[in-house]
Amino acid sequence: MAEKKQIKKKTELLNRKTVLYYTIFFLSLVVILTSGGLYYRYLAQGLPSLMQLERFEPYQTTKIISSDGVAIKELTKEKRTNIPFHRIPEDMINAFVSTEDHRFFKHWGIDTRRFLSVILINIQALRYKQGFSTITMQLAGQLFLDRRERTIARKLREIMLAIQIEKKYSKQEILEMHLNNEHFGHGAYGIHEAARKFFDKDIEDLRIDECALLAGVLNGPGRYSPVFYPDRSLNRRNLVLNNMLKHGFITQSQYVDARAKSLDVRIVLNENLITTDDIAPYYTEYIRQELESMQSQYGFDLYRDGLTVYTSLNTKAQEIAERVVKDQLDVQQRVANSRYRNKRSRIRLLESFRSIPLDTIPKLVENEAYMDSLLNKNNTVQTGFVSMDLSTGHVLAYIGGRDFTSYK
């Protein structure tokens, strides 16, 4: 009897412990799930909705066109021309995928196999040695997240966005967005501008080695610039070619041929994004200001939507007007300067400048080169010129001053 009571007592104690353990387990689970849910909500704050993903369009260039078909001004924050996927060479796609994410067509935004292997590599190295970003994760980070942030929360947001992007877009659309959005260095945004900037070619005319160079530059446009670091850029290009061979995108003979090519880069440094500022700058500035004032009324973004604006200006008439005005300005400037040819007028002029020591004036008065320079700067003749078609009122040529850069 006593033994039965003892067994019963132990059973009750065991049951109590079991209930306690289960209670603790479920409470812990509730806490973990609640915390996870709250953290998920925190991460989801500020992420774009599916609607925003659907409407996403990268910055495109607005072009102002003359009546004779010349692009006289380009307005943009990032000069780019978006091109459809079918125009991007297969070699460019293969070079990019083989180097950045060779399993791109096999995963759903996150490469779990690579993710696990990277964790093991980083644990063994006891430091951050490798990353696991896929092409889709890179796109998510570039388009919608702060690139300067380097936190776990940002990486988790990148993963969440990548999954959404993979649900919404096809692999081809993701590659198209990525290559149209990327910065290749030296002011070239998007693969079309990069082909123009680096090789002075249409994208369809790129060779395998040129595609490999552009794909290699993406890892660090500054670090792998073929202009500033040609040896480093060449090694990076050859690494991309090796990846293309390794993953079966090119043959051995294609690899050998492409690797033997030298860096044939024809980049133009310090090129202004607005490549045609010398054509009617006062006129195009007026057009820009007018368009800016119309943005809210008509619902467009001048620097993002890639508008094409047609104008009445004729570049041939503008060229003639600028040549004639320049010749006349030189003549009128000499006439204006001639008022200060006698010594007395020059002395009065120099005395009006407090920065000129009085004891230096007698010598400066006799210095013709100095006086001409001073007069051209401080006695500048300005002008204005408008040519119109009287039957329509259309402006054919427009000059607002001597020099747009100095006198806006």
Fraction of residues in helix: 40-55%
Low-confidence stretches: 269-276
Distance between the termini: 109 Å
For the sheet with most strands, the description reads: 3 strands, mixed
Summed up, the helix count is: 16
User: Approximately how much beta-strand content do the residues carry?
Assistant: 5-15%
Provide the succession of SSEs. HHEEHHHHHHHHHHEHHHHEE
Mean pLDDT: 80
Number of E strands: 5
Strand order of the largest sheet: 2-1-3
**What oligomeric state best describes the polypeptide chains here?**
single chain
Radius of gyration: 33 Å
Structural class: mainly alpha
Specify the overall morphology.
Answer: elongated
What does this entry look like structurally?
- It is built from 16 helices and five strands.
- With 408 residues, the protein is mainly α.
- Strands 2-1-3 form a three-stranded mixed beta sheet, covered by helices on one side. Strands 4-5 form a two-stranded antiparallel ribbon.
- Strand 1 and strand 2 form a beta hairpin.
- Helix 5 packs across helix 6 and helix 9 packs across helix 10.
Question: Would you summarize the structure shown here?
Answer:
The chain contains 16 helices and five strands. The chain is mainly alpha-helical and 408 residues long. The N and C termini lie far apart (109 Å).
